[in-house]
Write a structure and sequence with these properties.
Blueprint: E1 11-14, H1 19-29, E2 35-37, E3 45-50, E4 53-58, E5 62-65, E6 71-74, H2 76-82, E7 87-92, E8 97-101, H3 103-111, H4 115-129
Antiparallel strand pairs: 1-5, 2-3, 3-4, 5-6, 7-8
């Protein structure tokens, strides 16, 4: 029997040593405190408390907030292989639930003609040919 991994939606910010990025890491992701070490002046390092201890992120690494609120660093090449942008389509605003769909699935859905439009086109075509 084969199994497929369930899609998981995460939040992430790419680490850069500038105030705007550090504010995003704090405000958007909720990492508090944001602890940047300048022991190597040319190599700032973000220290992230995780379940496995303190991990470090270099400039360019992604800071990921997992499904259960945990934080961890991820190298850019691994991040790009593992994750793709998510498009949340709201179903019911009162319940604030979203579905997640990949870009490939969205392209497939948008690529299919709408059934009603196909019927209109076929009726128009038959009318033009004198069948209706």
């Amino acid at each position: 029997m084969k199994y497929r991994k369930k899609p998981v939606e995460i939040e992430a910010v790419q680490f850069a040593d500038d105030p705007d990025t550090l504010i995003k890491i704090n405000d958007v992701l909720g990492l508090d405190p944001v602890n940047v070490s300048y022991e190597g002046p040319d190599n700032p390092v973000l220290k992230i408390p995780t379940l496995k201890g303190v991990m470090t992120a270099q400039v360019g690494d992604y800071i990921v907030k997992g499904v259960h609120g945990e934080f961890y660093p991820c190298k850019p090449d691994i991040f790009e292989e593992t994750y793709e942008p998510s498009i949340g389509l709201p179903i019911d605003i009162s319940k604030a639930k979203c579905i997640s769909i990949s870009t490939h699935e969205l392209a497939e859905i948008l690529g299919k003609p709408i059934e009603r439009e196909v019927d209109k086109q076929s009726r128009r075509e038959r009318r033009r040919k004198g069948f209706l």
